[in-house]
Amino acid sequence: MQRSTALALVLSLTFGAASLPAHAAEDVGPTATKQVVQIQQIRNATAKIHYAGKTFLLDPFLAKKGKYPGFEGTFNSKLRNPLIELPMPANEVLKGVDAVIVSHTHLDHWDGGDHRLIPKAIPLFVQDETDAKLIRGQGYTNVQILDENTSFEGVQLSKTGGQHGTDEMYSNQPLAEALGKAMGIVFQAPGAKTIYFVGDTIWRSDVDQALAKFKPDVIVLNAGDARMVGYTGSIIMGKDDVLHAYQGVPNATIVATHMDAINHMTLTRKELKEHVKQHGIQDRVRIPEDGEVLKL
Question: pTM surpassing 0.85?
Answer without folding.
Answer: yes
